[in-house]
Amino acid sequence: MTPEEYVEEVLALVERIPSGRVMSYGAIADYLADRSGRSSARLVGSIMAKYGGPVPWHRVVNNAGRVVPGHELEAMARLIAEATPMRNGRVDMRHAAWSPDLAG
Q1: What pTM value is reported for the model?
Q2: Residue 102 above 80 pLDDT?
Q3: Residue 23 pairs with which residues in a beta bridge?
Q4: Would you say residue 103 lies in a domain?
Q5: Structurally, how many domains does the chain consist of?
Q6: pLDDT, position 24
Q7: Which residues share a beta bridge with 86?
Q8: What's the CA gap between 93 and 80, in Å, rounded?
Q9: Would you give the end-to-end CA distance of the chain in angstroms?
Q10: pLDDT confidence of 103, banded at 50, 70, 90?
């Protein structure tokens, strides 16, 4: 998979995350690792920072449920509007994490 194809795969996966659910940067990297030969949460973060504007970027969080730095207020407002499970000011990963493998 070329770097350009990887960017497209990351963005396509983010577009599939349902409203009220999230994926972590690492979960995205892990999900695409077998097909792409890459498994870097940082690379996913870089892709989201550079190309993520048109997709539901607010549904991608770190593994502790923290939203993207620099856009915390907007991300939290969007997540709350979608009724994403929260706990102690963060996304409740136990209840909000989504995986395409478990999608019905």
Answers
A1: 0.92
A2: no
A3: 60
A4: no
A5: 1
A6: 97
A7: 91
A8: 14
A9: 27
A10: low
Q: Residue 89: how many CB atoms within 10 A of its CB? A: 10
pLDDT in the model for residue 101 = 83
**16 located within any domain:** yes
Residue found under tokens 């890459």: 38
The domain that contains 70 carries what CATH number? 1.10.10.10
Structure confidence by residue, pLDDT tens digits, 33-51: 988 888 899 999 999 999 9
Q: What is the per-residue burial (b if ≥16 Cβ within 10 Å, else e) of 48-75? A: beeebeebbbbbbbbeebebbeeeeeeb
- CA 64 to each of CA 39, 72, 87, 93: distance values in angstroms, whole numbers, following the listed order: 18, 14, 11, 7
Q: Which tokens sit at 37?
A: 């030969």
Which residues, other chains included, contact 53 with Cβ-Cβ below 8 Å and sequence gap of 6+?
none
Instruction: Please say if the pLDDT value at position 104 is more than 60.
Output: no
Q: For residues 38 and 6, is the Cβ–Cβ distance under 8 A?
A: yes
Q: Report the mean per-residue pLDDT for the chain.
A: 93
- In angstroms, the CA 74 to CA 71 distance is 6
